[in-house]
Structure formats: structure tokens, C-alpha cells
Amino acid sequence: MAYQVVEKSSALGTQQLQLEERQGRLAALEARVAQLQEARAQQAQQVAKQRAQNVVQRAAYEDLRVRAEEQEAALRRLQEEASYVLEQLVQLKALAATECNLRLQRQERANQARVSQELKKAAKQTVSISELPDSLGKGIREGTETLALATEPDSLESEACEKWKRPFSFKKRRGHSIGGVPEQRYQSIPVCVAAQLPVQAQEVLDAHLSEVNAVCFGPNSSLLATGGADRLIHLWNVVGGRLEPKQTLEGAGGSITSVDMDPSGSQVLAATYNQAAQLWKVGEAHSKETLSGHKDKVTAAKFKLTRHQAVTGSRDRTVKEWDLGRAYCSRTINVLSYCNDVVCGDHIIISGHNDQKIRFWDSRGPCCTQVIPVQGRVTSLSLSHDQLHLLSCSRDDTLKVIDLRVSNIRQVFRADGFKCGSDWTKAVFSPDRRYALAGSWDGALYIWDVDTGTLESTLRGPHCAAVNAVAWCYSGSHVVSVDQGRKVALWH
């Protein structure tokens, strides 16, 4: 019995110890629960605060979104208004240009009628030529010659037959301007008797910010103009076999596609991709005149041999004649096909086209006088100094020399490796017409002998891209080539 009491007492003590241990653990757990509840309350407070901030930020976002939509709507309205204003401005300018052209044409017709009446009165008068000044005497003699021709039908018939046989003539004539007043012509540019074949590149420059499309020498052979896709024209002095920067002409509205200098060397004319040609005066940085009126890219712009006159060709299938003194279009010729290049002779305009044809236009008449088909799209034309031969370059990778006296293709130049790099690849005669020069897609220059038709020389080195254009100076001593890789090379 006593043994059982002792054993139960021992078991009771053990259970009491376990109970105390469990009570201690329970107290620790209760403290932990209190801590977690406190942390939970803090987290709940932070969540409530974040929700309040989210509500405020959502309201601000909605406000910003509404304001952005309002501003976008206002921007669209402004853009529509600007487009409408621009359209109205273009229409007003076109209307003003049309009215100006009509007014000038009316004035021109009135002047023609007045001059014609004066000439008729002068022709009816009996005047002693010996008693008049030389200039007036010449005018009356010319008027008398004209009347004599009008009374001789046989001579007119023979002249008409001759005109039919030779639909264009390059001989200089007097009295073909309006009202019979002699046209003011530029003085002829002296050219060399024998051009020198270039041998090596004397200087190579990265002249423009992008590809160079056009190059032209001035009449004194010491001034050079280059034009590129960067909308700039750089003028250079050729001194001692080097190119020294002279001036930069700014203000072009698009990429320069063609550059020409007048025979006096005082003006630069450029064709651009902004549907216009622009005129600069050497020494003035900004454009003097803008010749607008084409409806597509202008691909060619050339001075005529008479002062204050120019011709442009465009992708809009027109060739336009311009009076530079009054900056208006004096004549528009529908040429039926995309025009790549034009050249001007005495009373003749020659245009090269995308439909593989070369067309001849008489400046004094409305009709095309002749069409010469060639193989491949025509990329350029070059008229010899004596105006008896025409050089064409085309996308069939050939150059052709046309004898204008008989209107036949005299020579066709080909070469292994020669290939036109673009639709505006330019080829030129040497100033003495002995050689034909063109650049190829691989950066090489090819020179042919015009009389024999043989390849005279191939020049390689500075160009790593397709050569777009070349120019041979009037003195015959230098050649310049420009390429699609921004480079200008001076050869000697």
C-alpha cells in the first residue's frame, strides 16, 4: 500500500512538471500571438493608407488622361487648320502666278503688236540709209530683206524643203526674237584645241554630307560647282591641282539633281527634288529666284545661249522655258515621257526620256521636230561645242554619238565592266569633242575616242561607289568626277 502511494506521488510530480512546462509554452505562444496581432494591425493600417494613395493617384491619372485627350483633339484640329491654310496658300500662289503669267503674256502680246506696227511703218517709209546711223540702217536693211523674202515664193518653197530635210538647224541667225529684235546672247566660251587625257587623281575630298549628284565647271575652268542630296551647292576654286572651298550656296528645297553655270560664270542654276529649279548669283549665299511650276521632281536645268533664259525638265512629263529676268514660265512643252536631261542649242531644245527616246523641239514652234529612238532609258545628254554632235548615255550601258547634221547614230560605245549606276548617270564630251567620258557603277571612269570608237583609257582608284556625274573643264586640262559615296575627285 505504501509502495503504491509513493509511486502515485512520483507520477503526480512528473505530471505537475509537464503541466508547468506546457503552461510556460502556452504563455510564450500567447505572447507571440499578441505580437502577430499587433503586426497585423500595423499591416492593415499600411494597406488602408496605400489604398487611399491609390485612390488619389487613380483620380490624378484619370485627370491627366482626360487632359491628354483634349490636347490631342486640339492638336488634330490645329493640324487640320494648318493643312487647310497651307492648301489655301498654295492655291493662292498658283492663282497669283497664273494671273502674273497672263498679265505678262498680255503685255508681251501688246509689245509684239506695237513693235510689229512700228516695223511695218518703218518698212513702208523711203529712207536714205546713208543718212541714218549704222544701227538703224542695219535694222531697216534686215526689214527690207524680210519683205523681199515674203515676195519670193520660190525661195520660200526651197527653204521649206530644206527645213523638211533638216528639221533643226544650229546656225546662228538674226531677228528670231519677239518682234524681230535681236536676242541678247552670251559671248562664246573659248575652248581648247586639244584636250589632255586625265591620268591620275590629284585630289579626293568628302565634299558633301551625302551622295553627290551633279558637277559643272565655270567658263574660266577655275570655278567648279558640285550639288548633292544634302541640298547644298559647293563652289570650289581649282588652284594648282587642288580644290579650295570658295562658297556654299544654301536654300535649296530638296536634293540637287542638276547644276549648270551660265556662260558669264556669274549665276548657278540647279534642279531640285522639290518640284522647282533655283537660281543663285555667285557671291550670294542664298537663292535669288525659285522657278516653280512643275508638278514632280525636276531632273534637269540648263541655261540657254541667250541671256536671261533657261530650260528645265521634270518627271511630270514637261519641259519648261523660263524668262529669268521676270522669273516666270514663258512656255510649257508636253514631252510625253519622264524627262531625265535636257540640252540647248541655237533655237533648239533636246530632251532625253525614260521611254528610250531623244526628242528635238524648236524654240520658235510648238511641235516636236524629230524623235530618235535609242536602246535603254536615257540618263544624260551632252552637246558638243560646235553643236554638230550629241552624246547620250542610257541604261543599256552604252554611250551613243549622234551626228546632228544627218540625224544618225554615228558611234556606239561599250566596254567590259562599264555599267550605268543610276537613272541620272552623266556622260560628257571633252571640250574638243575628241573624247567621250562617263563614270561606272564600280567607281571607274571610262574614256572613248569619238572618231575611232575605241576605249582610250580606264581610270580607277578614288571612287568606291557608283560615279553619278563627270565634268571636263573648257581648257581641257582637268576632269572632275563625283560619286554616291560623297566623294569629289579632281583628275589631271
Q: Can you tell me about this structure?
A:
With 492 residues, the protein is α+β, with helices and mostly antiparallel strands. Helix content is 31%, strand content 33%. The protein is built from 3 helices and 28 strands. Strands 1-28-27-26 form a 4-stranded antiparallel β-sheet, with no helix packed on it. It has a 4-stranded antiparallel β-sheet with strand order 2-3-4-5, with no helix packed on it. The longest helix is centred in the first third of the chain and has 123 residues. The relative contact order is 0.09. About 11% of the residues have low confidence.
List keywords for this structure.
alpha+beta; 31% helix
What is the fold's blueprint, element by element?
Blueprint: H1 2-124, H2 134-150, H3 153-165, E1 201-206, E2 212-217, E3 223-228, E4 233-239, E5 242-249, E6 256-261, E7 267-272, E8 276-281, E9 289-292, E10 298-303, E11 309-314, E12 318-323, E13 328-334, E14 339-345, E15 348-353, E16 357-362, E17 368-373, E18 378-383, E19 389-394, E20 398-403, E21 408-413, E22 427-429, E23 435-439, E24 445-449, E25 455-459, E26 467-472, E27 479-483, E28 487-491
Antiparallel strand pairs: 1-28, 2-3, 3-4, 4-5, 6-7, 7-8, 8-9, 10-11, 11-12, 12-13, 14-15, 15-16, 16-17, 18-19, 19-20, 20-21, 22-23, 23-24, 24-25, 26-27, 27-28
Quaternary organisation of the protein chains: single chain
Which radius of gyration do the C-alpha atoms yield? 41 Å
Mean pLDDT: 85
What is the total tally of β strands? 28
- Beta-strand residue percentage: 25-35%
Largest sheet, if any?
A: 4 strands, antiparallel
Can you tell me the overall shape? elongated
Count of alpha/pi helices: 3
Q: Please bin the fraction of helical residues.
A: 25-40%
Distance between the termini: 139 Å
- SSE class: alpha+beta
Strand order of the largest sheet: 1-28-27-26
Poorly predicted sequence stretches spanning 5 or more consecutive residues: 129-181
